TrEMBL record, chains A, B:
Entry annotated with the keyword Transcription regulation: yes
Keywords: DNA-binding, Transcription, Transcription regulation
Domain HTH lacI-type: 6-60
Matches recorded under PANTHER family: HTH-TYPE TRANSCRIPTIONAL REGULATOR GALS, LACI-RELATED TRANSCRIPTIONAL REPRESSOR
Protein name as it appears in the record: LacI family DNA-binding transcriptional regulator
Amino acid sequence: MPRRLPTVSDVARAAGVSRQTVSNVLNSPEIVREATRDRVTAAVAELGYRPHASARRLRTRRASTIAVRLDPFAGGISGAVLDRFLHALTERAEARGLTVMLYTATDAGDEIRQFQRLVDGAVVDAFVLASTYSGDPRTEWLIEHGHPFVTFGRPWGIPELDDPQHFWVDVDGRAGVAEAVRRLRASGARRVGFLGWPAGSGTGDERRAGWAAALAEAGVDAGERALLTVDAEESVAAARAAAKRLLGQASDLDAIVAASDTLALGALIATGGALRVVGFDNTPVAEAIGFSSIDQRVDEVAAAALELLDLVGRSEAGDPRSHRLITPDVIMRTPGPALGLVG
Amino acid sequence: MPRRLPTVSDVARAAGVSRQTVSNVLNSPEIVREATRDRVTAAVAELGYRPHASARRLRTRRASTIAVRLDPFAGGISGAVLDRFLHALTERAEARGLTVMLYTATDAGDEIRQFQRLVDGAVVDAFVLASTYSGDPRTEWLIEHGHPFVTFGRPWGIPELDDPQHFWVDVDGRAGVAEAVRRLRASGARRVGFLGWPAGSGTGDERRAGWAAALAEAGVDAGERALLTVDAEESVAAARAAAKRLLGQASDLDAIVAASDTLALGALIATGGALRVVGFDNTPVAEAIGFSSIDQRVDEVAAAALELLDLVGRSEAGDPRSHRLITPDVIMRTPGPALGLVG
């Protein structure tokens, strides 16, 4: 095994604690029990661990090539968001003298092998990852091996949200959906339903939480809210069927907010265009058909990701600037006479 | 200026003829007048020109990184095609051990400066260009400087279509549109109109020519055809207005074939879903709304582009394998009860 600098994971292993605990000892020692603190401090000294040692390397030799994964085209409506992000990232990277290189991967394990290949070949200096998920082994590996990266997507395990080694930018779906609900209500919609993905995806749960929070603000209690939401997998047909179920259990609905434009289109078809529908991602489909949608502002996301890459290795541990939460735009469209839908 | 190998352009300049003439002398000497042939042969000898000398370099040092331009996201419906091409190219490139690198450019001059930068930095071995147009200075520059490239899009100056130094793959829009017209007629549509772009774009003119050829086959004469087609710029609103004009001049229309999905959507709205409409590009919008469209088969295009890159430097001058014309798929969709449009 090649000689490498010790990482926070090495310290955690040596001290028999979690990475988070090591991070706490380094950043907020007062919240850690003394015995644990001593064990971690001893391990740090023994291994010669220096926070951000590998990242500091980047300070002198600035990254010039960043790698981004590009998946095979899967069809459907919502993939457009990651393509828009790639366009924005490429444009802004070039303005900073950086080059974007693409790779593909069949799964997380394969992606980690690609990291190794790209790093071994000295082809790539940093990674920008999208579509993070709970327990994502890719970010663990990059942290472990000290390679600079930024994710579009927060770390979905709650205790790691403030991990000082994980730089991330994300879009505040909760705030975006809550704002859409408030605007629908302000324009006269009394009962606003939510068509979401099945519970368990961080992104989807956040979006539903935004809807629930806005209704709670308006005095709609949990029992009532339970009648106003249904789930569907990401397909127009599933969304259409789910929206019909929703109308069955809440016939006096005025509007529906959906977790994606795909789900929104299903809801529009099911309701025959009679209800106001707000989607998520502001895809070309929403624009073409003319329904409202929440825009992720991927241009801001790309700008923030590159700023964060600049900070990797320069910020101190626990630097609040290592995370960015972008508030999305709610794009309200009034369905014109041009296009109605009959379900 | 750095010492470089003579190119076909140097020979053309020295002999006072066009590049095409040089190419003819090399490939089909019998079609060139003797005096011209002698001048070209003398210039070839004097300069020490060897066909494909620079490309031959590639034979030993195989390209491992290919550069592709990625433009800022422009919104709209049809941009999805180039994104799909990039996905397919990245996936297939990786399977061949190649890496895709992205760059941006504000115009052709800027793009040529980028070529120079990427070549000087030894970052890139070959280029894949999309969106070629008549008199494209980018391909001229690449040929002149002996850098391997393939275009998605034929060279739109007719005399250069068989340029042995320009490797290209393109989609046969003419054949695709003609096939769509034939299938509409076979399923009972008697009068099939065409909603195209204003004359002058090679791609658009080819698509209109396919429609005209299929109608001519069916005995519709030029005078009648003139009433069955109108132009619109690439926007839903312009297409909608143009489709209304078309209905005004040909009220007994049964179907419309459009040069793009954007134009098709405008036609669908204008006709209130009463006519059959076929678009071009089979975008997510066509899929979501459920109208027919012609699919460019970008996966085949990507595969062909990489095969051609492999051939650059190995094929003999005039090798017919240096060009590929892919026949697109006509995807016929019957508008379901799910979604009607009211104009």
